Amino acid sequence: MKFFIDTANLEQIKEAQELGVLDGVTTNPSLMAKEGITGAENILKHYVDICNIVDGDVSAEVIATDFEGMVKEGEALSALHPQIVVKLPMIADGVKACKYFSDKGVRTNVTLVFSAGQALLAAKAGATYVSPFLGRLDDIATDGVHLISEIRQIYNNYGFETEILAASIRHTMHVIDCAKIGSDVMTGPLSSIMGLLKHPLTDSGLAQFLADYAKGN
Ligand code: E4P
Fold this sequence. Notes:
alpha/beta
């Protein structure tokens, strides 16, 4: 299972990278705005800064909502750095743009996916990644984790190579649930990854080992 971090915060990306378990980064316009990154030039520079920290794929989202605009923007994003993956919204023009880019060998991430049918369409259009937003489904009292299992089943049935990128992960249990289902990738906040470390028996066990060692040394 690949671990992506869902942030545009360079410090958090560095921290996850230093842990040695980071496979990539996802961003979106809201995450960029949260870090105060505004203006076309600054945004493009920030993507390159992220690519220079992490070894894996970095999703950069288009703002255009029409096919021509998405193609133009996606080509510029993809030319920025070999690690960039063009992130496209799950709308009709986004599906067309996904097919356009996949035919050209440009990697894509179809985002804002909330149903198995949308995920099927993204795979048919050749998406590299599909991003079902499980946390946002949970927010409206719909089982987000169940959507990941439906998509896993559909992709397995037909051997689709599109990778399931479980997105909108809110906490560590989401990560574990997605791993059990066989999601290819998870993207979440740093806390969802660091939470995997924690167990009180690890802490008390280590404290005991160190105390026993100190008695005789
Ligand atoms: C995915 O790529 C999105 O950036 C993200 O996971 C959305 O998560 P949120 O629902 O926490 O905003």
